[in-house]
Specification:
Elements (H helix, E strand, L loop, with lengths): L3 H21 L4 H25 L5 E8 L2 E6 L2 H27 L5 H20 L3 H19 L5 H33 L9 H4 L4 H14 L11 H4 L5 H28 L1 H5 L2 H22 L4 H22 L2 H32 L15 H15 L7 H13 L4 H26 L13 H19 L1 H22 L1
Helix pairs in contact: 1-2, 1-4, 2-3, 3-4, 3-10, 3-14, 3-18, 4-5, 4-10, 5-6, 5-10, 6-8, 8-12, 10-13, 10-14, 12-13, 12-17, 13-14, 13-16, 13-17, 14-15, 14-16, 14-18, 14-19, 15-17, 15-18, 16-17
Length: 493
């Protein structure tokens, strides 16, 4: 009999089983990749069901580690949306991976697909976690399973990038996040995610909440808040499908999702609003938004430029949390969705250009839009969404964040958001201009790119247009999370 609890279990089991079948079929590439796609499609259908039933908050106890310490899944709308984004884009990125990995004759493809499956299982665990302990364990699974993907090429540069990746993410999680989880359990007697905020209803003082908020903000290293961001640009040594899904969607979005979930269910908007450290962290997020954009402008390498763009865009979510405003937190939640679709479009476009030309530097890409018009149109649409131009999905998070900054009395942060959009134009659109309007100096394509590296970014570019018109259902689905948390926390305080 199909039950919500079974569906919660399948969210973890399906990608894990996909990894098993990929490993078993490693010597037969067509079947191996079919197993990846089947697992991705089945997971997406299962998550679609979870999205429908999330308001009922079904729970699945996975294990009891000790009295009061449980591994548990508890479904709620915020986690359901993150799971939907990661599972849906896994299908598109799996198609893209087939074209990219074959088109570039990459080695160790079986290991690549197996680690991808494990990483998606980790992302599902983070999305559906019912307490901090469960989230922490799956957060670490995500880190460890993506390390082989970052170091996939096996050369000195990949090993160095992987070492930075692993040392920062493990260092922040074990050195800062784990102590925050332990302290929360000590102070509140639980690590459960609670409407209104676990710490708020336990009347934690602002001084203690400040210390904990700082530990969480920098302990969740995947959110890439400066100065714990260097892992992200260094991870760009990975093959582009890794950059596209894991560093535009699953890994980095797991970070900012964890930040948003901690802000909503551990602190609560009302407690954040009276926590002194929140103002300082909002300043740091605002500085990260602008400074990372400035650094992006200096990068000629396309993936490096997109990496620093991601650092900037992730800080939007952290900013929304630190403002403690329901509108701003809703803007942060929407940023997780909209940025995922826009940024994966840009990364897949970068990989398609590399596959067709071998070029990685923007200064080398003059005139390429004439050879690959659909790809460059897709890139441009994704870029305009990141900039925040209507009618594209990326415009909505910025609007809600601007309103939230004003509502919370932090009007100065509106300057950072507006400056970011202007800087986005300056570093994202030059590639479009070069591609379409600069004359090519020579025949640029070393080969025709496979259709499977062109079609996926076109699909995701169309997706950012569709998402603009889905704002009503998305807002109605997510807004009660933050409004109810605010009301519950205010009642407790």
């Amino acid at each position: 009999m199909w039950t919500p609890e079974l569906s919660l279990a399948l969210a973890l089991v399906l990608p894990a089983l996909g990894g098993v079948f990929v490993a078993l079929l490693g010597s037969r590439p067509n079947l191996r990749e079919a197993a990846t796609l089947i697992a991705a499609v089945l997971l997406a259908f299962n998550v679609a069901y979870l999205v429908e039933i999330a308001q009922g908050h079904p729970t699945l106890d996975l294990a009891t580690l000790a009295p009061g310490l449980h591994l548990v899944f508890k479904l709620e709308p915020l986690g359901a949306i993150f799971a939907a984004v990661a599972s849906g884009l896994w299908i598109v990125n799996s198609l893209y991976s087939i074209g990219y990995m074959r088109g570039n004759n990459e080695k160790n493809q079986t290991r690549f697909y197996v680690c991808f499956c494990i990483a998606i299982a980790g992302a599902m665990g983070v999305a559906l976690s019912g307490n901090l302990l469960t989230m922490f364990l799956f957060y670490e699974v995500l880190t460890l399973s993506t390390y082989p993907l970052v170091t996939h090429k096996g050369d000195a540069k990949a090993k160095r990038g992987g070492a930075i990746y692993l040392s920062i993410l493990l260092g922040t999680s074990i050195g800062l996040l784990l102590p925050a989880v332990i302290a929360t359990h000590f102070l509140a007697g639980s690590t459960d995610f609670v409407a209104g905020g676990l710490l708020a209803i336990n009347e934690i003082t602002p001084a203690i909440s400040s210390v904990l908020l700082v530990l969480f903000a920098f302990g969740i290293g995947k959110a890439a808040l400066m100065p714990v961001h260097p892992w992200l640009p260094n991870a760009m040594v990975a093959p582009t499908p890794v950059s596209a899904l894991l560093h535009a969607v699953a890994v980095v979005k797991a970070g900012v999702f964890a930040m948003l979930k901690v802000g909503t269910y551990i602190f609560g908007p009302a407690l954040i609003a009276i926590t002194p450290a929140a103002d300082a962290l909002a300043w740091i997020a605002g500085i990260s938004i602008v400074l990372a954009s400035v650094v992006a402008m200096t990068k000629d390498n396309l993936k490096a430029r997109l990496a620093f763009s991601t650092v900037s865009q992730l800080s939007y979510v952290t900013l929304g949390v630190m403002l403690g405003s329901p509108l701003a937190m809703l803007g942060g939640a929407l940023q997780i969705v909209m940025h995922a679709w826009g940024k994966i479009t840009l990364f897949m476009s970068a990989g398609a250009i590399y596959t067709a030309t071998g070029k990685t530097e923007i200064s080398q890409m003059d005139g390429l839009g004439r050879y690959m018009p659909w790809l460059f149109i897709a890139y441009t649409v994704g870029a305009l969404s990141i900039i925040g131009l209507p009618p594209l999905g990326g415009s909505w998070p910025k609007l809600f964040l601007l309103q939230g900054a004003w509502e919370s009395g932090h009007g100065w942060l509106m300057v950072a958001l507006i400056a970011s959009s202007i800087l986005n134009v300056a570093y994202l659109l030059p590639l479009s201009a070069r591609g379409f309007f600069s004359p090519p100096a020579e025949a640029k394509l070393k080969k025709q790119p496979p259709m499977l590296v062109i079609l996926p970014p076109v699909i995701t570019a169309a997706g950012v247009v569709v998402l603009f018109f889905l704002i009503g259902p998305l807002r109605d689905y997510l807004a009660p999370v933050f409004l109810s948390s605010t009301l519950a926390a205010e009642a407790a305080l």
